[in-house]
Inverse folding.
């Protein structure tokens, strides 16, 4: 495995740690690893009749061309060595960021998007693999010039970091391919169903709220089951113990793509009903990098390379029409 920066966990300030664990845009690692082990792996992992996902070390990534006018905006201190220090979490999960079949090469949609941005900026990617918490420490100190790691924009994080968005923060409802359930988009759609969700997650809060609304309306309550790992929930879905699973869209979309035996019946914002959550590239506040990051992202969005990357990982439904700088984020946590 490639070497990683070893910043001591004890050095993480309490405020940064709080920012790290809040609204991370993903379920616990166990669930994510379950997604990987439950699906076929390898460069020829099948996804239905016509879709394959390459999980081998030779990725043949989609590449972009340097745009001189955007590259010229990169701060001199960052551009000086010709490299862009990009932070990813070593606790990653398919299809976001994970180890390829050689158990050494770090691959995924996050690495592909980072490569596109670096190409437009005329820089070489310098991957830095570390813990989730240390992504925030590294970005704040400047050791990590940018982080691409499924980071959700929040109002608290915007005090310390700048953000350039590139995906929606989305949840999904997964059902068996043969299920009679056609759509789940509102509370009434889950009345009386056997459903599963990760404990302590944003999606659990949404599900419990929907269930409470149904009870108040005199509808049947849902039968909610909990599984520690995503793989266990998938087994329950396949056996019929549950009728639907509510979880992070990336893991579900990847599993749907590689397994071919289930489908997505509906999606919802990871921020809840009042705000569309957004995933963004994160950089140190006021370091001058966020504008070129934003323009690089908009360049690849417009020329189609961005869509090509999302589609190759089964995440086309998380595409955004335009990258934004520091949009409204998840509300501040009440103290």
């Amino acid at each position: 495995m490639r070497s990683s920066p070893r910043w001591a966990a004890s050095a993480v300030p309490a405020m940064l740690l709080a920012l790290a664990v809040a609204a991370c845009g993903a379920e616990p690692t166990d669930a994510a690893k379950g997604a990987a082990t439950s699906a076929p792996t390898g460069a020829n992992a099948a996804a239905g009749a016509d879709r394959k996902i390459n999980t081998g070390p030779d990725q043949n990534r989609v590449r972009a061309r340097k745009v001189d006018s955007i590259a010229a905006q990169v701060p001199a201190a960052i551009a000086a060595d010709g490299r862009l220090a990009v932070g990813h979490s070593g606790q990653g999960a398919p299809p976001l960021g994970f180890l390829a079949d050689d158990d050494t090469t770090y691959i995924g949609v996050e690495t592909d998007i980072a490569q596109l941005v670096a190409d437009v900026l005329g820089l070489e990617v310098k991957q830095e693999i570390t813990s989730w918490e240390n992504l925030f420490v590294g970005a704040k100190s400047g050791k990590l010039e940018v982080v691409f790691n499924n980071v959700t924009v929040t109002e608290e994080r915007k005090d310390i970091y700048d953000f350039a968005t590139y995906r929606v923060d989305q949840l999904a409802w997964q059902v068996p391919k043969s299920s009679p359930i056609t759509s789940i988009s509102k509370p009434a759609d889950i009345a009386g169903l056997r459903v599963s969700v990760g404990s302590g997650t944003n999606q659990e809060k949404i599900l419990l709220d929907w269930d409470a609304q149904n009870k108040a309306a005199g509808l049947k309550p849902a039968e909610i089951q909990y599984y520690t790992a995503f793989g266990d929930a998938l087994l329950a879905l396949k056996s019929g113990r549950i009728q639907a699973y509510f979880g992070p869209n990336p893991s579900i979309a990847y599993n749907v793509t590689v397994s071919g035996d289930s489908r997505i019946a509906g999606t919802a914002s990871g921020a809840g009903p009042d705000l569309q959550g957004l995933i963004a590239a994160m950089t140190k506040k006021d370091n001058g990098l966020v504008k070129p990051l934003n323009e690089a992202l908009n360049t690849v969005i417009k020329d189609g390379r961005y869509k090509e990357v999302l589609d190759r990982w089964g995440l086309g439904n998380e595409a955004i029409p335009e990258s934004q700088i520091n949009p409204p984020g998840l509300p501040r946590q009440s103290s």
About this structure: The first strand starts at residue 45 and ends at 47.
